[in-house]
């Protein structure tokens, strides 16, 4: 091989070897830039998904609050209507009694007038002028005075009864007008309630769609469970400083159900996403009254993600009961509650697909099977 050609090949080989590290570094930099772009794109997508999820959750919470407000107004109006119906019934009873009394007084007055007329057939003026039979005249005068006094008394009672009856009739007309106004208000509130229910369903559908698209159903349930656990643990610590209550010891298998309905999910059964249920789910109609299972004190009453409107009772000695997915809460924190007292209205808040109640019993923070504590009859 000629010397010049060999030198040229060597120079080319050396140049190639010198360029290889530079090319490798350039390729690595390009790959790193692509990877960084992919990471940034993924972060933007995750951020966008989180924003969509938070927006869906916020819409659901707002719809739950609007529905609770409409439900509370309707519940209050219905209570007013029941009170007005009771007052109307009492006034109608008073009216009947007064009408009977008035008829009796009119009959008695008519009888007295008839007697007075019969007595007046005697020639009273002739007896008085002729001084005939002074004894008989004295008796006639006494009779006249008696009948006159009795007649005046009956007239007074009759006028009082008429005045009382007129007052009752006026009150009755007023109550009937109030009742008519209340019924119109109730009809308007029912329309508002139906509108709020429709909004709630739309918000729930949007949340479910978002979770399905993002494939985050299980993560969502786990987050909700963790939030509930943290809330209950904080409540348990506070409950230790609350008023002394008897607890649930000795009442196992005897407690009344918080709500009548079909048992949809038992304790320990797999929930959506494969998580084990820490409570039971009872299906019922919307607006059905939820009752306290035992004496207690309200230690929580608010909206909680995944569980909607939740109320928690402290029963003492480490026992608590939880009632979730309510449409509306009837009690506030600090209220003392008796067994069987209404504390909420069943609903489907917090993303529940059908109306009902999610119910838990906890002992020192640990969930226990409610079916072992509730009686067998529902």
From TrEMBL:
CDD domains: M23_peptidase. Pfam families: Peptidase_M23. Keywords: Coiled coil, Signal. The keyword Flavoprotein does not apply. Residues 1-24 form the signal peptide. InterPro entries: Cell_wall_metabolism_enzyme, Dup_hybrid_motif, M23ase_b-sheet_dom. Residues 277-370 form the M23ase beta-sheet core domain. Residues 25-108, 148-245 form a coiled coil. This is Peptidoglycan DD-metalloendopeptidase family protein. It comes from Rheinheimera muenzenbergensis. The lineage of its organism: Bacteria, Pseudomonadati, Pseudomonadota, Gammaproteobacteria, Chromatiales.
């Amino acid at each position: 091989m000629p010397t010049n050609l060999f030198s040229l090949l060597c120079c080319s080989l050396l140049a190639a070897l010198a360029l290889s590290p530079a090319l490798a570094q350039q390729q690595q930099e390009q790959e790193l830039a692509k990877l960084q772009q992919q990471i940034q794109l993924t972060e933007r997508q995750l951020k966008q998904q989180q924003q969509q999820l938070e927006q869906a959750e916020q819409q659901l919470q707002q719809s739950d609050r609007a529905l609770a407000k409409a439900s509370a107004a309707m519940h209050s109006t219905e209570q007013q209507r029941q009170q007005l119906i009771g007052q109307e019934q009492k006034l109608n009873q008073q009216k009947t009694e007064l009408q009977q009394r008035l008829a009796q007084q009119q009959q008695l007055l008519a009888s007295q007038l008839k007697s007075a007329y019969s007595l007046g057939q005697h020639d009273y003026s002739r007896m008085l002028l002729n001084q005939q039979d002074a004894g008989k005249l004295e008796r006639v005068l006494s009779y006249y005075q008696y009948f006159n006094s009795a007649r005046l008394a009956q007239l007074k009672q009759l006028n009082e009864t008429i005045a009382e009856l007129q007052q009752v009739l006026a009150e009755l007309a007023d109550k009937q007008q109030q009742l008519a106004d209340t019924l119109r208000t109730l009809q308007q509130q029912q329309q508002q309630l139906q509108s709020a229910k429709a909004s709630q369903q739309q918000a729930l559908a949007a949340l479910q769609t978002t979770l399905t698209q993002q494939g985050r159903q299980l993560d969502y349930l786990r987050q909700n469970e963790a939030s509930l656990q943290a809330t209950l643990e904080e409540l348990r610590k506070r409950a230790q400083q609350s008023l002394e209550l008897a607890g649930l010891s000795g009442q196992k298998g005897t407690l009344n159900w918080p709500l009548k309905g079909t048992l949809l999910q038992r304790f320990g059964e797999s929930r959506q996403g494969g998580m084990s249920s820490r409570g039971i789910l009872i299906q019922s109609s919307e607006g059905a009254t939820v009752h306290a299972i035992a004496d207690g004190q309200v230690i929580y009453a608010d909206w909680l993600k995944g569980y909607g409107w939740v109320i928690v009772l402290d029963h003492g000695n480490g026992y608590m009961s939880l009632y979730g997915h309510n449409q509306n809460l009837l009690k506030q924190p600090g209220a003392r509650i008796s067994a069987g007292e209404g504390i909420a209205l069943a609903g489907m808040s917090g993303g529940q697909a059908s109306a009902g109640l999610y119910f838990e019993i906890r002992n020192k923070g640990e969930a226990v099977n409610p079916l072992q504590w509730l009686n067998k009859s529902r």
